[in-house]
Amino acid sequence: MNIRILLLLACAAPSVLTVAAQERKEENKTPILSTPIMEERVTELMADRVPTTTSAAIEKLMEVNENAALMNKENMMFPADELYGSSWDNRWVNPFQTKSITFPDSFAIDCSTFTIPIDGNLKVTSPYGMRRRRMHRGIDLKVQIGDTIRASFDGKIRMRSFERYGYGYYLVVRHPNGLETIYGHLSKFLVNENDIVRAGEPIALGGNTGRSTGSHLHFETRFLGVDINPANIIDFKEGVPHQDMYVFRSVKSKGRNTNVYTASGSGQMVYYRVKSGDTLEKIARANGTTIDELCRLNGIRRTTILRIGQAIRCSSGGEVEIKNTHPAPVKETTVKASVAAVSSMPETTKTTAAATKTSTRKTATVTTVDNDGQPIYHRIQQGDTLGALAKKYGTSIEKLCQLNGISRTTILKLGRSIRCS
Predict the structure, then answer these.
(1) 28, 86, 288, 317: which could join 269 in a potential S-S bond, CB 3.0 to 4.6 Å?
(2) Is this prediction's pTM over 0.85?
(3) Could you tell me if 263 and 299 are in contact, meaning their C-beta atoms sit under 8 angstroms apart?
(4) Which DSSP letter does residue 27 get?
(5) Measuring CA to CA, which residue among 392, 265, 285 is closest to residue 339?
């Protein structure tokens, strides 16, 4: 019986193997069906290759941001190059004394980002003006030896030098807004020539070097080498600018340049100087505004760390009268400036919505309004073109290029003043 079973199994084995081989062969011929997961992956890969409207908008935004960052970097590397004509002299505080330089008829200097150059209380120990038959071309601020000295605006270090019978150890910083600031009688430098610094950044330590009878900081503000009384630009009692814009006008009086001072008016902007323990919420509540509005006016975020002594702008201001208050015997010229900033503050409450409605589209423009042939200037805003400016002021692109020494292809930098007549 066992022998018979073994013989049957032996005969059946080849048949079983043949059937199995045929089944495997048929399976190999069966097409592979795609699964939902594979289809989804293929769709994603295809979508990556097909540009969409959203991706194009994002790419355009990235390009705009890159261009803005590049322009900002260029402004810091070559501050106010359009004014100074690439003149970068590391030997003289005023390199234009022996050079022929063309002053603009007027120039609007943005002082809104001013930062107090010293820590602690502001005390002016000697003002600008004649002193013991010598011209004192700046103001003296009380500091102790070793106190931190800070940059007043963003800028680039033009000079780091020593003058035994004058400034002592001193720095000269050129700023993109057109000003140069000088810091004298220092005890130690914290920066080198050609370094780029930001407003509020430490640049030196206070001292008593050079022609000095006690520790203090000698602080000057200059425009194309011409000294300007710092107190005309800055309120040293509060440590903030009198106004966002200081207008320099090239008016000759007895062979010397005089300046137009941005006087306080009914629409004066309100600033607050940060003290220990202050927060954005506390400042907003004290000045009857919102945190969002403070962030918009100062270009900061809710998470920005406030530095003691920092000037915080608390209102956008309005129309401001600019008059010549420099004590020179020249005809007083009145200029009206509309001052503000572009905003897109989100609507949160009815109050903030109403405030936003009145300040959604604000710009900083300086334009003369007198009728005695004074030139008209326009401060470049987002979206401005030579064609748009020519149409607005009733002139031609060629005339604009001629008045400003530019070409049709010149890139208009935000904040730059363009002469339109």
Answers:
(1) 317
(2) no
(3) no
(4) H
(5) 265
